Amino acid sequence: MSGIPHDETSNGGGFVFDCRFIHNPGREANFKTLTGKNKQVIEYLHNDKKIQAFLENVYAIVDEAVENYLIRNFTDLMVSFGCTGGQHRSVYAAERLKIHLLNKFDGKIKITVTHTEFPELSSN
User: Sorting pLDDT into bands at 50, 70 and 90, what band is 68?
Assistant: First the structure.
């Protein structure tokens, strides 16, 4: 599936972040068959200052929205990440945001991660 994912909740979407400006590990032979959930790719991107700065900005934006949604009793917020193949950077970013939100909002929110290009990587 290409493009912005469909919002199953009928709330009109949410945030969409483009990861294509970040160096693509998939262009390196040793990462080509891996995904953003593989240890080697995670370590590679963890050491990339550009994606770490990007994620800090994403965290700030999404944290504000989640805090507001909790106050207003809203139930669904969709956050999407995209990159060239949906395999490395966007998978990594989605997984890092999940970890961040679980730590920050400890038990107050439910998170479902759907990797549209690699459904087998998805989790609740």
Answer: very high
Residue 1: is its pLDDT beyond 60? no
Q: Residue 115 corresponds to which tokens in the numbers above?
A: 């990797």
Identity of the residue numbered 99: I
Quick check: 93 pLDDT over 80?
yes
DSSP percent split of the chain into helix, strand, coil, nearest 5:
45, 10, 45
SS3 104: helix
- Residues 81, 20 contacting (CB under 8 angstroms): no
Q: Is 89 exposed, middle or buried (0-12, 13-18, 19+ CB in 10 A)?
A: buried
Give the whole-angstrom CA distance, residue 27 versus residue 30: 9
Q: Domain segments of the chain: what residues?
A: 14-121
